[in-house]
Design brief:
A five-stranded parallel β-sheet has the order 2-1-3-4-5, sandwiched between helices. Helices cover 61% and strands 11% of the residues. The chain has helices at residues 3-15, 19-31, 36-56, 62-86, 108-120, 133-142, 155-170, 188-194, 203-215, and strands at 94-100, 122-126, 147-151, 178-182, 198-199. The protein folds into two domains: 3-86, Orthogonal Bundle (Methyltransferase, Methionine Synthase (B12-binding Domains), Chain A, domain 1); 94-215, Rossmann fold (3-Layer(aba) Sandwich). It contains nine helices and five strands; from the N terminus they run ααααβαβαβαβαβα. Helix 8 (188-194) links the parallel strand 4 and strand 5 (198-199). The chain is α/β, with parallel strands linked by helices and 216 residues long. Helix 2 (19-31) packs parallel to helix 4 (62-86) and helix 3 runs antiparallel to helix 4.
Length: 216
């Protein structure tokens, strides 16, 4: 099947909350040696972004988001081991701590970023969601992290990213560990305001910017 058709099937599967369909197209893509990164970006991620926009417009509700996320995750679970194999490298770029900020339980976008960063060559320490700020700082210390990424999906939790920057500075980690901020309401202006090193809009963006920043 053509790459574009696979991507459309992945997109449709998420939009229709079709767990079996999302898993099937992922398995088909693996079998046909399709571009798995493009399948994620142009199929699953594109759809979940659209779901998020519909939710913001109050055209769908929380159960719909959960159903869409479950469908997407069914496909991502198939693709993840294949992506990790393709990205296997003896030379790690460095340890990258990633998480969703305290008070925020969203994890879909962050988890996709974690997969892509691992494929790009980082050793990713995914702390999960709703992670306390002190735990994040300690993880950066314990793992001698070259970079740390925090995601905030709500304006009410963005303030945690500012507090995290302050804690990273107090711990003497600023300048040693690059900080990345992302999430739907987060902008370059916010990153500049709080003193974050890098702002990333999506999984493609975070990989491009963080590889360049760490290797630069």
């Amino acid at each position: 099947m053509a790459q574009a058709d696979l991507e459309q099937k992945a997109y449709d599967g998420v939009m229709k909350y079709d767990i079996k369909g999302c898993k099937a197209v992922a398995e088909q893509a693996v079998a046909e040696k399709a571009d798995l990164v493009a399948l994620i970006n142009n199929g699953y991620t594109k759809a979940i972004t659209q779901v998020g926009e519909l939710f913001a417009q109050k055209k769908i509700f929380l159960p719909h988001i959960m159903a869409a996320a479950n469908a997407m995750n069914a496909g991502i679970e198939v693709l993840t081991p294949e992506l990790e194999k393709s990205g296997a490298s003896a030379d790690s770029i460095g340890n990258f701590v990633i998480c969703t900020i305290e008070g925020d339980i969203h994890s879909i976008g962050k988890d996709i970023c974690a997969i892509m960063l691992k494929v790009a060559g980082f050793n990713v320490i995914n702390l999960g969601r709703d992670v306390k700020l002190d735990v994040i700082v300690q993880a950066c210390k314990d793992n001698n992290a070259v970079a740390m990424g925090s995601s905030a999906l709500m304006t009410s939790t963005m303030v945690g990213q500012k507090a995290l920057e302050e804690k990273m500075k107090a711990a003497g980690l600023k300048g040693k560990c690059l900080t990345n901020v992302g999430g739907a309401p987060v902008t370059q202006q916010w990153a500049d305001e709080i003193g974050a090193d890098v702002y990333s809009e999506n999984s493609n963006d975070i990989v491009t910017k963080m590889v360049a920043a760490v290797k630069g």
